[in-house]
C-alpha cells in the first residue's frame, strides 16, 4: 500500500523521460512510456495483493503543504481508490500498446499521455479536497494537446469543447469548495474538515454547496444535459486518448461525486437525490437512443459511454450500499469495456479502412478481413450489453437492484436503457463487421473501390493483440469473479463518512 | 519632522544602489562605450544588471521594520519583499533589451529603467502622501519615456503619448485627492491621517477617496480606466511593456493597499467599518467586477497577441483588486503572492514575444504558429507562462488566484461584501482559459510553413525566460516559499 503514491511520481518522471527520449528516437519514447505505465500498474497490483480492506481511508502520506491555508499534502486509499487505481494502470498500459504506431512527435505524445495518467493517479489517491482538485486540473490540460495535436475529425473544436467543459465543471467545484471553506470557517481542505464546515452552514447553503460540487464533477462524468463534450471529444481524440477519456477520465468525475460531493452534507444530498437520479436516467435513455441512430462508428461508442456513465450516476443517486458498490464496479467495468471498444474502432478498424462511416463499413466483409478485431468487438459488445460472464453484468445488476430498493420506478426506467444498449450494440456489430457488399449503394462502393487494396489490410500487430487481450481478460475475469472487486468496495462503504449517506438513501 | 539622515541612508540602500547604478551606466557609456558601438549594448546590460542585483540583495537583506525620516518612509516585511520583487522583475525585463538597431541608445534605456525601478522601490516604502506621489511620478515619467523609446515605430510613439496623457490625468486626480486629504486632516503622514479619520470624518473625504481610487484605477489598468492599456502594451518596446505590466503593477498595488488599509481604513464604507455604505470598499469591488468582465470579454475578441495580453492584464487587475479588498483583514500575503507571480508570468510572456520579434514580426496570434517547431524552448516557456496566467495548477498562477479567493471568502463567505466577485471571477476563469488556449493552440498545435526559420534567443533573454519559468513552477509547487513570509 505504501508504495501507491509512487504511481504519481513514476508517471510524471516517465513523462519527462519520454519527452527527452523522444528527441532521440520514437522507439525510445515508446519503450519509456510502456515501462512507466507497467511500473505504475505493477505498483497498484502489488498494493492490491497486500490490501487488507477496512472501513475508511488508509493513510499513505500526510505532510504540511500550504500551512497558511491549512492545506496538507494528504494521500490515502481505500478499496474504492484501489479499484480505480488498478483500472488506471490497466487502461494506461493498454493505451500505450494501442498508441504504438504514433510516429508524429512521439515523445511529446507520450509525455502528455503520462502526465495525464499522473494526474489521474493523484486524484484517486487524494485525501484532501484541494490536492484532489489540483490533480484533477493537471489531468485536464494534457487532454487538449493530445486531442488537438494527434486527434482526427474536427479535433480542434472537440479538444476546446472538452477542455472548456471540464474546466467549467472544475470551476463549479472550486466555487462550491470555497463556499464551504469560507462561510463554514474551515481550517483546511481535508474531507473531515470540509464536511464539518458544510455542516455549519444553513440547509439552503448546504444544498447550494452540494449542488455546485456535484454538478461540477458530474460534468466530467458526462451527466445529462452536460454530456455533449463527451461524444465530440471522444471522436476527435486519438485512440489511446479516447480510451483514457472514456475509460478513466470520466471516472474522475464520478469519483469526485462519490468522494467529495456526496459526503459533504447528507441532508442536502437527500434533497437533491431524485433530481440527480432522473438526470442520470435521462442520460441513459437519451444517449442510448442517440447511439442507436449514429452513422459514425466512433460516435456510437461515444454515446454508449454517456449512457453507461448514466448507470454510475444512478448508482450514486440511489445511495444505498448495493447501488453505490455497483456504481464503483461499473466504473471499473466501463473503463475496461469502453477502452476495448475504442481500441477496436479507432485503432484496428479506422487505421486500416480509413473510414468510420457505418455505411462504408457495411460494404466491407470485415469479419473475414480482420477476424481478430471482430472477435474482440463482439466480446466487448457482449460485455457492454451486460451479458452474464462479463464485468458489465454484475455492475449493472447491482446498480439496478440498488435503485429498485431506493425507488422501483428508477430501476424500471433504467432497465429500459439496458435494452437500448443491447439494440445499439447489436446494430453496431451487425453493420460494421457482418455487413454485406451492397451492389445498390454506389456511394459506399465508390469508397470501397477507392480503397482498392482493402483485401490486404496490414495484419493486427502484436501490441494491439496484447492490449486487447489484457482488457478482455480483465472484463471476463471480473465477470466470472466479481467478488474480487466487491470485497474491496463493500468494506470501504462501511466507513462512517459513507454510512451517513447510504443509510439515508436506502429507505 | 526630524531629519535622521543616517537612518534614511540605511533604509534607502536599495534605491541608492539603483540611482548610482543608473548614473554609472550613463557615465560609462558617455566616457567609453559609445565609441565602441559593438559593445555598447552588452556594457549597458551588464552594468544595469549588476546594479539591480546589488540593489536587490540590499532589499532582500534589509530585515528590520521601522520608520525613518519623520515617518516619511516605512519599511517592513511587505515593503522589503515588494522592493526585492520589483527589482527582480526589472532584472528579468532588462534582460529582454533588444539587441537591434531599433534601440540605438541601450545605456539610456537601461538608466531610465533603473530610475523607474527606483520609483517602484520607493512606492513600496512610502508612508506619506508626498513621498507616495513623488515615487509614483518618478516611476510613471520613466515609464512614459520607456514606452516611447523605439523612435522608429509610430506605434511606440502613440503608446507613449497615450500613456502620458492618461497618466498625467491620473496624476492630477491623485494630487487632488491627496490635497483634499491633507486639507481634511492637516497631515500628509498616513499614521496621522488614520488617527485623525478615526475621530472625525467629513463628507469631503468621499470626494478625496474617489479621486484616489480613480487615479490608482488608471495606474492598475482597471476598468473603466483601462483604455490606455491595449495601445501601450501593443506599441511599447517589449522590455518596457513587460515592466509596465509586472513591476509597476506590483508596486502600485502595494502602495494602494498601504494607502487604503493603514491610511484610510477607518474611513466610512470600508469593509472593516460597515459593508454597505458609501465609501471605498464597494467602489473597489465595483471596479474589480468591471475589470474582470471587461478584461475577459474584451480579450475574447483580440487577434493581436499583445492586445490579448493587455486585456488579460485588465482581467487580472480585477482579481488583484479582490486581493486588495481582503488584504486589510487577512494580511497582504495572498495579494503579494498573486501580484509577484503574475508579474513573473507577464514578464515571461513578453519575453517570448521579444525573442520572436528579434527574428520577425509578431502581430497577430497566427504569427506564433509553429513555435514548437521553430523553438521548443520558447514554446515550452510560453506554455508555462500562459497556463500560469490561466490559473492551471501546479503553476503559481493557480495558487495566487486560489489564495486571493480564499482570503476574500475568509472575510465574510460568499454572502460577504465581495463574495459575488469570487463567483464572477471563478466563472470568468473558464472564459479566460478559452483565449489563453487560443495562444497555445497557435504555438503548440498549429503547423508552420516549411521555410520558417528557427528562432535564435540571445543568452540574456534565454536566462531571463528560464528563471521566470523555473520560479513560476517553484512557487507553484511550493507556495509557502512566498506565502509563508507573511
Automatic annotation (TrEMBL), chain A:
Q: Which residues form the signal peptide?
A: 1-20
Pfam families xref list: Proton_antipo_M (PF00361)
| Predominant subcellular localization, coarse grouping | membrane
**GO CC annotation terms, alphabetical:** endomembrane system; membrane
GO molecular function ontology, one term from the record: ubiquinone binding
Q: Where in the cell is it found?
A: Endomembrane system; Membrane
Any transmembrane segments, and where?
A: 30-52, 73-98, 110-141, 162-181, 201-223, 235-255, 275-293, 300-319, 331-350, 371-390, 410-429
Q: Which domain of life is it from?
A: Bacteria
Its recorded name reads: NADH-quinone oxidoreductase subunit M
UniProtKB/TrEMBL annotation, chain B:
Keywords, A to Z, come to: Cell membrane, Membrane, NAD, Quinone, Translocase, Transmembrane, Transmembrane helix, Transport, Ubiquinone
The chemistry this enzyme catalyses reads: a quinone + NADH + 5 H(+)(in) = a quinol + NAD(+) + 4 H(+)(out)
Q: What is the protein named? A: NADH-quinone oxidoreductase subunit N
- Membrane topology per the record? Multi-pass membrane protein
Isomerase: is it a keyword of this entry?
no
Whether Transmembrane helix counts among this entry's keywords is yes
Q: Which Pfam families match?
A: Proton_antipo_M
Q: Name one GO cellular component term.
A: endomembrane system
**Molecular function in Gene Ontology:** NADH dehydrogenase (quinone) (non-electrogenic) activity; NADH dehydrogenase (ubiquinone) activity; quinone binding
Can you tell me where the transmembrane regions are?
A: 16-33, 45-66, 78-97, 109-126, 161-184, 204-228, 280-301, 308-329, 335-356, 377-399, 419-438, 459-478
Q: Which GO terms describe its biological process?
A: ATP synthesis coupled electron transport
The UniProt similarity line reads:
Belongs to the complex I subunit 2 family.
EC numbers on record = 7.1.1.-
Its subcellular locations are: Cell membrane; Endomembrane system; Membrane
Amino acid at each position: 500500500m505504501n508504495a501507491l503514491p509512487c504511481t504519481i511520481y513514476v508517471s510524471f518522471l516517465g513523462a519527462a523521460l519520454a519527452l527527452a527520449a523522444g528527441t532521440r528516437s520514437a522507439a525510445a519514447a515508446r519503450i519509456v512510456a510502456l515501462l512507466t505505465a507497467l511500473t505504475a500498474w505493477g505498483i497498484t497490483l502489488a498494493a492490491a495483493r497486500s490490501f487488507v480492506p477496512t472501513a475508511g481511508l488508509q493513510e499513505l502520506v500526510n505532510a504540511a503543504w500550504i500551512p497558511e491555508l491549512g492545506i496538507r499534502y494528504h494521500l490515502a486509499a481505500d478499496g474504492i481508490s484501489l479499484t480505480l487505481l488498478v483500472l488506471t494502470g490497466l487502461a494506461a498500459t493498454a493505451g500505450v500498446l494501442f498508441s504504438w504506431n504514433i510516429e508524429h512527435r512521439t515523445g511529446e505524445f507520450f509525455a502528455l499521455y503520462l502526465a495525464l495518467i499522473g494526474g489521474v493517479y493523484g486524484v484517486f489517491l487524494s485525501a484532501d479536497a484541494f490536492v484532489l482538485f489540483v490533480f484533477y486540473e493537471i489531468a485536464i490540460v494534457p487532454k487538449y494537446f493530445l486531442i488537438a495535436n494527434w486527434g482526427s475529425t474536427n479535433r480542434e473544436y472537440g479538444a476546446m469543447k472538452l477542455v472548456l467543459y471540464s474546466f467549467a465543471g472544475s470551476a463549479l467545484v472550486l466555487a462550491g469548495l470555497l463556499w464551504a471553506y469560507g462561510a463554514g470557517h474551515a481550517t483546511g481542505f481535508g474531507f473531515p474538515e470540509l464536511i464539518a464546515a458544510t455542516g455549519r452552514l444553513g440547509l439552503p447553503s448546504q444544498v447550494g454547496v452540494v449542488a455546485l460540487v456535484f454538478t461540477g464533477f458530474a460534468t466530467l462524468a458526462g451527466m445529462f444535459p452536460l454530456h455533449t463534450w463527451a461524444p465530440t471529444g471522444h471522436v476527435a481524440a486519438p485512440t489511446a486518448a479516447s480510451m483514457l477519456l472514456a475509460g478513466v477520465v470520466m471516472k474522475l468525475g464520478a469519483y469526485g461525486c462519490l468522494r467529495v460531493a456526496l459526503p459533504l452534507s447528507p441532508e442536502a444530498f437527500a434533497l437533491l437525490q431524485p433530481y440527480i437520479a432522473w438526470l442520470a436516467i435521462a442520460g441513459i435513455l437519451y444517449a442510448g437512443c442517440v447511439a442507436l441512430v449514429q452513422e459514425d462508428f466512433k460516435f456510437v461508442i461515444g454515446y454508449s459511454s454517456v449512457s453507461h456513465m448514466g448507470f454510475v450516476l444512478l448508482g450514486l443517486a440511489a445511495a444505498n450500499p448495493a447501488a453505490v458498490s455497483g456504481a464503483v464496479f461499473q466504473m471499473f467495468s466501463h473503463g475496461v469495456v469502453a477502452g476495448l471498444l475504442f481500441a477496436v474502432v479507432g485503432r484496428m478498424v479506422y487505421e486500416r479502412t480509413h473510414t468510420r462511416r457505418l455505411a462504408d463499413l457495411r460494404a466491407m466483409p470485415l469479419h473475414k478481413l480482420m477476424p481478430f478485431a471482430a472477435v474482440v468487438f463482439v466480446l466487448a459488445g457482449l460485455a457492454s450489453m451486460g451479458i452474464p460472464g462479463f464485468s458489465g453484468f454484475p455492475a449493472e445488476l447491482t446498480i439496478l437492484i440498488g435503485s429498485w430498493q431506493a425507488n422501483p420506478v428508477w430501476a424500471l426506467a433504467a432497465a429500459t436503457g439496458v435494452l437500448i444498449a443491447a439494440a445499439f450494440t447489436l446494430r453496431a456489430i451487425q453493420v460494421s463487421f457482418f455487413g454485406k457488399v451492397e451492389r445498390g449503394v454506389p456511394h459506399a462502393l465508390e469508397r470501397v473501390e477507392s480503397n482498392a487494396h482493402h483485401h490486404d489490410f496490414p495484419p493486427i500487430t502484436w501490441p494491439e493483440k496484447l492490449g486487447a487481450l489484457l482488457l478482455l481478460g480483465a472484463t471476463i475475469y471480473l465477470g466470472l469473479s466479481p467478488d474480487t472487486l466487491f470485497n474491496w468496495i463493500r468494506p470501504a462503504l462501511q466507513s462512517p463518512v459513507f454510512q451517513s449517506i447510504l443509510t439515508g438513501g436506502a429507505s | 519632522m526630524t531629519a535622521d539622515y543616517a537612518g534614511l541612508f540605511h533604509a534607502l540602500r536599495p534605491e541608492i544602489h539603483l540611482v548610482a547604478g543608473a548614473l554609472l551606466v550613463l557615465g560609462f557609456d558617455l566616457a567609453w562605450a559609445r565609441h565602441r558601438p559593438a559593445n555598447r549594448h552588452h556594457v549597458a546590460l551588464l552594468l544595469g544588471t549588476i546594479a539591480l542585483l546589488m540593489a536587490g540583495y540590499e532589499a532582500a537583506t534589509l530585515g528590520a521594520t521601522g520608520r525613518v525620516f519623520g515617518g516619511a518612509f516605512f519599511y517592513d516585511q511587505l515593503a522589503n519583499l515588494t522592493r526585492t520583487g520589483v527589482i527582480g522583475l526589472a532584472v528579468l525585463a532588462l534582460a529582454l533589451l533588444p539587441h537591434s538597431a531599433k534601440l540605438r541608445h541601450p545605456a539610456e534605456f537601461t538608466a531610465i529603467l533603473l530610475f523607474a525601478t527606483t520609483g517602484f522601490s520607493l512606492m513600496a516604502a512610502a508612508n506619506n502622501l508626498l513621498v507616495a506621489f513623488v515615487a509614483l511620478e518618478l516611476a510613471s515619467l520613466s515609464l512614459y519615456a520607456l514606452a516611447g523609446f523605439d523612435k522608429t515605430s509610430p506605434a511606440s510613439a502613440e503608446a507613449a503619448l497615450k500613456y502620458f496623457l492618461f497618466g498625467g490625468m491620473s496624476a492630477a486626480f491623485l494630487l487632488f485627492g491627496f490635497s483634499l486629504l491633507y486639507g481634511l486632516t492637516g497631515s500628509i503622514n498616513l499614521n496621522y491621517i488614520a488617527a485623525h479619520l478615526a475621530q472625525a470624518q467629513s463628507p469631503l473625504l468621499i470626494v478625496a477617496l474617489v479621486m484616489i481610487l480613480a487615479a490608482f484605477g488608471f495606474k492598475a489598468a482597471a476598468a473603466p480606466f483601462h483604455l490606455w492599456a491595449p495601445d501601450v502594451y501593443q506599441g511599447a518596446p517589449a522590455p518596457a511593456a513587460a515592466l509596465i505590466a509586472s513591476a509597476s503593477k506590483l508596486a502600485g498595488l502595494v502602495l494602494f493597499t498601504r494607502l487604503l488599509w493603514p491610511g484610510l481604513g477607518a474611513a466610512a464604507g470600508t469593509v472593516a467599518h460597515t459593508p454597505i455604505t458609501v465609501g471605498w470598499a464597494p467602489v473597489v469591488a465595483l471596479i474589480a467586477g468591471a475589470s474582470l468582465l471587461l478584461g475577459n470579454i474584451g480579450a475574447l475578441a483580440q487577434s493581436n497577441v499583445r492586445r490579448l495580453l493587455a486585456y488579460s492584464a485588465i482581467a487580472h487587475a480585477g482579481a488583484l483588486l479582490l486581493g486588495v479588498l481582503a488584504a486589510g483583514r487577512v494580511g497582504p500575503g495572498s495579494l503579494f503572492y498573486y501580484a509577484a507571480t503574475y508579474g513573473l508570468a507577464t514578464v515571461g510572456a513578453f519575453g517570448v514575444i521579444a525573442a520572436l520579434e528579434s527574428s520577425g514580426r509578431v502581430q497577430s496570434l497566427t504569427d506564433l504558429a509553429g513555435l514548437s517547431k521553430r523553438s521548443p524552448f520558447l514554446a515550452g516557456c510560453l506554455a508555462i507562462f500562459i497556463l500560469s496566467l490561466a490559473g492551471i495548477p501546479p503553476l503559481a498562477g493557480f495558487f495566487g488566484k486560489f489564495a486571493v479567493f480564499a482570503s476574500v471568502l475568509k472575510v465574510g463567505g460568499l454572502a460577504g461584501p465581495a463574495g459575488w466577485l469570487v463567483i464572477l471571477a471563478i466563472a470568468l476563469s473558464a472564459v479566460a482559459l478559452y483565449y489563453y488556449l487560443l495562444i497555445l493552440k497557435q504555438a503548440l498545435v498549429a503547423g508552420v510553413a516549411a521555410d520558417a526559420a528557427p528562432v535564435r534567443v540571445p543568452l540574456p533573454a534565454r536566462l531571463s525566460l528560464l528563471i521566470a519559468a523555473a520560479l513560476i513552477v517553484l512557487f507553484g509547487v511550493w507556495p509557502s516559499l512566498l506565502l509563508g513570509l507573511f
